[in-house]
Design brief:
Elements lengths: L5 E5 L3 H13 L3 E5 L2 H8 L6 E6 L8 H10 L8 E5 L4 H7 L4 E4 L4 H12 L3
Parallel strand pairs: 1-2, 1-3, 3-4, 4-5
Helix pairs in contact: 2-3
């Protein structure tokens, strides 16, 4: 198992999160879910793990995607990990630009688009 092919799926919707994790695991990645920004930061800070990508929902309880991104950028060890926003918001492109993320996708996400984006960021890992 290549630990560098780890993808963190951050979404408070259990069904969406688990579906994305299952799809990515089926594609050969090691996908892990987090229900909010706090859980995501905890996962990312595990020194045993190396992450190639974070798929991030913006609207979540406890710690939303914007707050997570601010915390991620404050941590020099986590800041280089690419983030792709996955949201149903109308202005997801504007949010992506504002948060300086690598890319964005609008829910519902076509399966082929999800896999293509993950391949793009995790290919050289």
């Amino acid at each position: 198992m290549n630990l560098a092919h780890r993808v963190l799926v951050v979404d408070d919707d259990t069904e969406i999160r688990e579906t994305m994790v299952e799809i990515l695991n089926d594609e050969g990645y090691v996908a892990v879910g987090a229900a909010d920004g706090y859980q995501a930061l905890e996962q990312l800070r595990d020194p045993e793990d190396r992450w190639c990508l974070v798929l991030l929902d913006l609207m979540m309880p406890n710690m939303d995607g914007r707050t997570f991104r601010a915390e991620q950028l404050r941590d020099p060890a986590l800041a280089p990990i690419p983030v792709v926003i996955v949201s149903a918001m109308n202005d997801v492109a504007a949010a992506a630009e504002e948060l300086k993320v690598s890319a964005h996708m609008t829910k519902p996400i076509p399966l082929s688009e999800l896999i293509q984006v993950v391949r793009q960021f995790c290919a050289g890992s």
